[in-house]
Amino acid sequence: MLKRYEIKIMKAGTAPKVFIYNPTCEIAIANGTLSFMPNKTLSKFESDLDVLPLYFTDENDVLLVRQIPDEKFLNTLLHAGISLPKFKLLESALQDHNFINRPKQSLQAWGWSPRIHHILKPFKQSCSKEFLNQPNAFWKNEHRELYGRKTGLEVLKRFLEDSESDKYISENLIARVCTSIEEIENLIKEWKQIVIKAPLSSSGRGLQVLRKSYLNDSIIQWINGTLEAQGYVTVEALVDKKHDFSLQYFCDGKGNLAYIGPGFFETNTNGQYEGNILGGMPKCLTNDLQEPQMNELSKGISRAIETSDIVMNYTGYLGVDCMLFDDINGDRKIQPCVEINLRYNMGTLALTLDKYLSPKTKGAFKMIFKPKSSFDVFHEQMEKKHPFEIKDGKWLKGYLPLVSPYQNKNFGAYILLETIEE
User: Fold this and answer.
1) Which end of the chain, N or C, is less surrounded by CB atoms within 10 Å?
2) Strand order across the 411-419 sheet
3) What is the set of domains in the chain, with CATH numbers?
């Protein structure tokens, strides 16, 4: 389903789509200013991984980058059967009048924010009317609320109201909106262990996991800073999580939502994203997430989102993070909407990479951070230990870098595959 939908988009026009990677979009929305700059580590994260949108591009498209990827890496991708877009330095593109005036099908930011709209503003004059008529082709103040956790919480409540199944999280465990320390302390009394989340954050950042039933000074300081900057936090019970997964959709901004498929990912003990599983649903989840259950879930979430402000105010991919957990009685339950990510995300990327895999292959997409070393050193070790193999034009097994391992990057992205035993 994903492949057919992508082809439809690609052939909609001959002008290129222009892509850019800005994973700090939620933080930029929280900041709200056009001049926002991520901190040093996040800026490095953004620049080191800036080629990741290429896996969504067509040969006619343009990917704006901070550093042109080297020929050796690009040849590796070509050998793996990946078609490449044209690469252009962002800084030079903004000064290139020929490029600015060249007709464009659309601008494809990883995620929208006031900052990225401001950066890409010079290119809008040459974009298609179809793009310019999208509800989020220009930033509006009311868009901020769409990206906050209240939107996901409203979708969750609507889903639970419409569901008669006992397979889902009980309403007394779902997130509450808090605007004071006192409210949070009352929830600690009720739940003992909690998770506090900033309204605008992503990939497990902007959250505090409290396994002890009190707020220390540093957490109180973080809460007060978040309340001052964003107005509220959400607080939910810390449950016995067993696995993370997601539901991926495409919204056309005209009230229509297309389900693309599920994604399965891993987080660390603090809830921070570590990577996605490739090759379909892991065997350990097949009993809990059988096809009828997934159909019920994806359709129910779709109906809930269609009643929200999202479908008429957003065009693009979106991912709904979900969770399997055991309740206090040891019964397996589903949290059907932990949060909604209105952007390209690693779940969509994983589904895109899946189409290259052999039917006999499974594996993982991973992101790593080497603050005192580099992705280059890691690559050398992995390439020797897990040589990449292709069979019948499909990826069979081994290691493949997804960003260049030859440019002294601290952040890296790669896949590691293995064949499934019959």
Assistant:
1) C
2) 332-341, 315-326, 240-252, 257-267, 273-278, 361-369, 411-419, 394-401, 389-391
3) 2-139 (no CATH), 170-238 (3.30.1490.20), 356-419 (no CATH)
